[in-house]
Amino acid sequence: MHRTKLPLTKWFWAAHLIATHSNGISAIQLANQIGVKEDTAWLLLHKFRAAMADREKQPLCGVVEVDQTEVPFRTDDDPNAPADGRIIILGAVEIVNRKTGEAPVTNFNKPYLNTRPRRVRLAMSPDETQDSIHAFVRANIAPGSTLLTDGHSSYLGLNEGEEADRYILDQRVVGKMAAHVVLRWTHRVFALMKRWAMGTFHGFRARHIDQYLAEYAFRFNRRYWRRVSFDRILGLAVEHAPHGYEAVVGRKARANRTNSPKRISTRNRKTDTGMRKDGTKLIVIRDNRPAIPDGRK
User: 69 and 197: one domain?
Assistant: First the structure.
C-alpha cells in the first residue's frame, strides 16, 4: 500500500476477492470487479502474492507426504501456444486424522486410512537431485517428522545424522501401481494446482512461479476459514515492506525521491510583495513604502 493512488476501498475489495474466491482470480477478472485497468489489477495481485510468500511459516510436522511433479509453462500469452518447457515442483502435505485432527501414528508399509490434508508447502526446484530435495525438506518440515515418499533415491540420507536433525523415512516403492494410490494427498494437491493454473491463468509462467505457488498454498491452507484469511492477508500487506513495480518485474529501483537534485539557479517564489528569490532577506522599511527584498533598488 506504500504511496498508493488507489482508494483503500479498492484495496480491501481486492484482498477480499483474492482471499475468498474459491477458484482463484485472474488480473482481468479482478479489473472488472473493482473497476481498474488490467495492469493495475495485475500489480495488485503480485503485491498481495509477495505478502503471502513472506509470511512467517510454521514447519509441517507429524506424518508428511513428499513428492515432486512437472508442470508445463509458456511465455506466449496465447492459451493455444505450445509449452516452452517444464517446471519441477516439490510438494509436501501434512496429513491428520479426519475425526480427531491429530497426526496419525507412523505405520510403515501400511496405508494411512481415514486421513485428510491439513497444510501444504510448494516450491519450484531446478532439478530432482539430492541437494535440492533435502533443502526443500529441511526448509519446510520439522525434524523428527515421518516422511511418506516414493522410492526416489534423492530422499536417502534424510534419516541419518544427528538425532535432532534427522527424519523418519517411510518410503513406498510404487512400481507399476498408480502413484496416487500410495501418495494420495500430494497427488490430489498437484491435480488441483494444475487445474487451477490452466483454468484461471491458462498456464503458469516460469518468471513468477514462486508467487503463484505461494498464493495457492495460502488459500489451500485456509480453505475452511476464508473470512479469517481476508483479515490475515490485509495484515500481511500492511506489515510487508514496500513492493513496487520494479520489485515485481525484477528491475532496479529508482533513486529515492526524497534526495531532490541540486538546483543550478535559485528558485523564485511568489510572495505578497512580489517575486523573491530563495535565501534573500526581507528588509522592512518603517514608513508607508512596501517592504523590498535585500539587494533590490
Answer: yes
Indicate whether 186 and 74 sit together in one domain: yes
Most distant CA pair in the chain, distance = 106
How far is the C-alpha of 112 from the C-alpha of 11, rounded, in Å? 43
User: Assign residue 96 a region: left if phi > 0, alpha if psi is -120 to 50, beta otherwise?
Assistant: beta
Three-class secondary structure of residue 130 per DSSP = helix
Query: Does some domain include residue 211?
Result: no
Range of the domain at 23: 1-54+220-259
pLDDT of residue 102: 92
Q: Which three cell numbers stand for residue 173?
A: 516403492
Helix (H) / strand (E) element for 270: namely strand 268-271
**251 and 275 part of one domain:** no
Closest CA to 24 of 174, 214, 247: 214
DSSP state of 126: S
User: pLDDT tens across 92-134, in order?
Assistant: 999 999 999 899 998 887 888 899 999 999 999 988 999 999 9
